[in-house]
Design a protein that fits this description.
The complex is a heterodimer.
Chain A lengths: L3 E2 L5 E4 L4 E7 L6 E7 L6 E6 L3 E5 L2 E6 L4 E6 L8 E9 L4 E4 L3 E6 L1
Parallel strand pairs in A: 2-11
Antiparallel strand pairs in A: 1-3, 3-8, 4-5, 4-9, 6-7, 7-8, 9-10, 9-11
Chain B lengths: L3 E4 L2 E4 L5 E7 L6 E7 L6 E7 L5 E2 L8 E7 L2 E6 L8 E9 L4 E4 L3 E5 L1
Parallel strand pairs in B: 2-11
Antiparallel strand pairs in B: 1-3, 3-8, 4-5, 4-9, 5-6, 7-8, 9-10, 9-11
The chains are: A mainly beta, B mainly beta.
Chain lengths: ~110, ~120
């Protein structure tokens, strides 16, 4: 099992729809979780961080965390073509105290 | 969000030369910085963890004598690619850990092309 697993995609959604991005992780003791967005040829940009079970909303973005299931997701409401990018899930592993990244999910929003 | 500045953003060099890349945290002190490498259409690969005032910790398979890391202050870490070869051509990205609230911010990246 990969330490942080994401579906590589591409995930295609029409403009205005909800995009749902999922991530699972292997370290049950992890406490900090992050979503980054990376446009082609650019470095990653932090979108959301979440530390507690449940939902955390910020504008069109909602992060959801379920530690019992070792699952974290990112919902993007009213998806826009400018949201088209690779979304990286990152988990702070207690083992080694390091941030482990998933391989990323490619999102394509079609107008 | 916090600002991490990386310089240069792109560099072209001849094979056998050395290249230095700087990473600065502009609005917070970063005791820990990380260096990543990313090849086209691949995910980020952690190369090393840079700790202020101590030796860097390299990931398995990364040559410490080839990729020299110096973290001399709380706001600056440097990566020097020594005796660069074409296979070292890649996108190098630094990041700095802001301990409160424990978030990682990335620099803009440096695209290295070795001829």
């Amino acid at each position: 099992q990969k330490e942080v697993e994401q579906n590589s995609g591409p995930l295609s959604v029409p403009e205005g729809a909800i995009a749902s991005l999922n991530c699972t992780y292997s370290d049950r003791g992890s406490q900090s979780f992050f979503w980054y967005r990376q446009y082609s040829g650019k470095s990653p940009e932090l979108i959301m961080s979440i530390y507690s079970n449940g939902d955390k909303e910020d504008g069109r973005f909602t992060a959801q965390l379920n530690k019992a299931s070792q699952y974290v997701s990112l919902l993007i409401r009213d998806s826009q073509p400018s949201d088209s990018a690779t979304y990286l899930c990152a988990v702070n592993f207690r083992r080694g105290n390091k941030l482990v990244f998933g391989a990323g999910t490619i999102l394509r929003v079609k107008s | 969000g916090a600002v991490v500045s990386q310089h240069p953003s792109w560099v072209i060099c001849k094979s056998g030369t050395s290249v230095k890349i700087e990473c600065r945290s502009l609005d917070f002190q970063a005791t820990t910085m990380f260096w990543y490498r990313q090849f086209p259409k691949q995910s980020l690969m952690l190369m090393a963890t840079s700790n202020e005032g101590s030796k860097a910790t390299y990931e398995q398979g990364v040559e410490k004598d080839k990729f020299l890391i110096n973290h001399a202050s709380l706001t600056l870490s440097t990566l020097t690619v020594t005796s660069a070869h074409p296979e070292d051509s890649s996108f190098y990205i630094c990041s700095a850990l802001n301990r409160v609230p424990g978030e990682l911010f990335f620099g803009e990246g440096s695209r290295l092309t070795v001829l």
